[in-house]
Amino acid sequence: MAQLSILRYPDARLHKVAKPVQAVDARIRALITDMFDTMYEAKGIGLAATQVDVHERLIVIDVSEERDAPMVLINPEILWSSEEMLKGDEGCLSVPGIYDGVERAARIKVRALDAEGRSREIEADELLAVCIQHEMDHLMGKVFVQYLSPLKQNRIKTKLLKQDKQEKQDRRENA
Ligand code: K1U
Ligand code: ZN
């Protein structure tokens, strides 16, 4: 079981645009396994490769209560989005402790490769639709806080940088 380190906002690497996966090979399958381990351990419902500093178009998701419905999206593309929008609170493993409202398309249709490299079309609504859109934003270098006001973004940056500094200080003191 390999845990990957999750980049934390405002790390500049979260804003890199991911490149398409060229081949669903052993390297990608090992990365998928490690990303699921990391997502389940962090109690997240999704994780984009960007968040673990791999800039390729790969997402893992599990929005089930039982945590037994893993879903892999490689090179995802949105085929259709509903005109209807819904606003709901989002969180992010790269922005720990921050939750805020973001407006997203209520329903989407997505095409992606699965872990075996087969092309799939997925129709999603509710939490799955929100999660796919949130993770696809990561692949484009966008973090959900960028939908918030500049004032909120600055407050979040300051708070997380302060937390980071404090954690580093605590580690030095306990070393
Ligand atoms: O960091 C991430 O991209 C994962 C993120 C996915 C997400 C959660 C909520 C809305 C959109 C996308 C998380 O898993 S955040 C933590 C979490 O477990 C959670 C937060 C709110 C609702 C459900 C789960
Ligand atoms: Zn996120």
UniProtKB/TrEMBL annotation:
Molecular function as annotated in GO: peptide deformylase activity
Binding site for Fe cation: C92, H134, H138
Key words of the record: Hydrolase, Iron, Metal-binding, Protein biosynthesis
Catalytic residues as annotated in Swiss-Prot or TrEMBL: E135
TM annotation in the entry: none
Broad EC category: hydrolase
Coiled coil: none
Any Pfam family matching the protein: Pep_deformylase
Catalytic activity: N-terminal N-formyl-L-methionyl-[peptide] + H2O = N-terminal L-methionyl-[peptide] + formate
InterPro entries registered for this protein in UniProt: Peptide_deformylase (IPR023635), Peptide_deformylase_sf (IPR036821)
Signal peptide: none
Cofactor binding summary note: Binds 1 Fe(2+) ion.
Requisite cofactors: Fe(2+)
EC number of the protein: 3.5.1.88
NCBIfam families assigned to the protein according to its UniProt record, in alphabetical order: pept_deformyl, PRK00150.1-3
PANTHER family: PEPTIDE DEFORMYLASE
Protein name per its UniProtKB record: Peptide deformylase
Organism for this UniProt entry: Ottowia thiooxydans
Gene: def
